[in-house]
Amino acid sequence: MGFDLSFALSTVPTILGAIGTTLLVALISCLGAAGIGFGFEMLRRSGGLSGYAVRFLIDFIRATPVLAWLYFLYFVLPFYGIRLGALTVGILGLSVYFSGYLAEVFKAGIDAIPKGQSEASRAVGLSRIDTIIFIIAPQMLRNIAAPLGNYFVSILKATPYLAVLAVPEMLGQAFDIASDTYRYAEPLTVAGILFLLLALAISQAVKRVETRLLGSNRR
Amino acid sequence: MSIFDIWLGILQGLDVTATVTGYGLLFAVPFALIFGVAQYLAKGAVLFAVTCIIEFWRSSAVIILLFVFYYALPVVGLMLSAVTVSAMVLGLNIGGYASQAVRAGLQSLDRGQKEAGQALGLSRSMILLLIELPQALVAMSPTFVNHFIQLVKATALVSLVTLTDMTFRAKEIAQIEYNPVGIYTSLLLAYFVVCYPIAILGRLLEARISSGRELARGL
């Protein structure tokens, strides 16, 4: 059984068709991870018991594999009566897993802002929430643009994990073809090549956006 | 089955997790050193070739790479065991990331280090071995610890290519016993128990290196 090139080429359109799902999963997971990660970081900063709990949770997430998280959510949520589709569970899994990393990004982004900024806004009478929204967040966004872009690429590279939950992203589609035809090498190689090209293109695009964003902000 | 039995069952997979991690290092460490140094020293076409190889291993998704090599290598006549393929793919993927740390560590050294070596009459390879690499590797050691944790976590993937690691054991237990909460919580905890001490070690290293740096500056 050699490598059948014409069969391989025939799988290209199907796998290519899943790029939309792959990108959508990556985008929503990145937003989800950023949201949870920002929440974690705010709780961690508030100190107290919840601060310590969140600190432990972040360490815990960073010390456990994304695959184990996907299985955990996929099998444990239904046990408590929460029935979600595989796609939703997958996005939730990636969001939770990467939130542990994004919390650190937010931490670095906030630490880089001079303390006088929040002190000044408190002094002019802004509330704590207003200080976060109007003073801290805009400055933080500029600081985190570059690492956030890198994590978007990391999340994109983690989307094929969703194939283990049978989500039809690129790798999932390749496995669908493989189980229909009993030929694994061709669809998987095609998925590998197409995904590599996609990841390279996206990481180049992210780099460009970064240089433009940061270039316009630097004096 | 008590939670204790579940734990014992999952820990039976620890030897496979450790084996794949160990063999993975055999690929990762040489790759990171050779290609990191090559990217630092090479110019022109060689630099381009080296960069292409590094980018191939770190730009794609590791789960796709694993499946492509697992299913496609036998088709082109290369029969490797699942352990070898897994160790190679996971190792070279992490090695690709670590090579960037090696290169960045070398590039961030003060130029005076190299010039002093030249002034003492050392050859280029001696400067690299005796002066540049030791400093770069020590400075980057916390990053290497992080990559090592990523490697341990990535071994969860080998459960998908029939190897009986901790994740595989957990899924096996899940087939004979309906206790998703106990089983998958134990799985996450098992990885945490393995990875967290390593993360602590990395933090200690980092604290030690940064305090050493301040000392050097103070003097």
TrEMBL record, chain A:
GO terms for cellular component: ATP-binding cassette (ABC) transporter complex. Keywords: Amino-acid transport, Cell membrane, Membrane, Transmembrane, Transmembrane helix, Transport. It is a multi-pass membrane protein. Coiled coil: none annotated. It is found in: Cell inner membrane; Cell membrane. GO terms for molecular function: transmembrane transporter activity. The chain crosses the membrane at residues 15-40, 52-74, 80-98, 148-168, 188-206. Pfam families: BPD_transp_1. Residues 19-206 form the ABC transmembrane type-1 domain. GO terms for biological process: amino acid transport. InterPro entries: AA_ABC_transptr_permease_3TM (IPR010065), ArtM/GltK/GlnP/TcyL/YhdX-like (IPR043429), MetI-like (IPR000515), MetI-like_sf (IPR035906). SUPFAM superfamilies: MetI-like. Belongs to the binding-protein-dependent transport system permease family. HisMQ subfamily. This is Amino acid ABC transporter permease.
UniProtKB/TrEMBL annotation, chain B:
Keywords: Amino-acid transport, Cell membrane, Membrane, Transmembrane, Transmembrane helix, Transport. GO terms for cellular component: ATP-binding cassette (ABC) transporter complex. It is a multi-pass membrane protein. The chain crosses the membrane at residues 20-38, 183-205. PROSITE patterns: ABC_TM1. One of its GO terms (molecular function) is transmembrane transporter activity. Gene3D superfamilies: MetI-like (1.10.3720.10). Its main location: membrane. InterPro entries: AA_ABC_transptr_permease_3TM (IPR010065), ArtM/GltK/GlnP/TcyL/YhdX-like (IPR043429), MetI-like (IPR000515), MetI-like_sf (IPR035906). Belongs to the binding-protein-dependent transport system permease family. HisMQ subfamily. This is Amino acid ABC transporter permease. It comes from Mesorhizobium zhangyense.
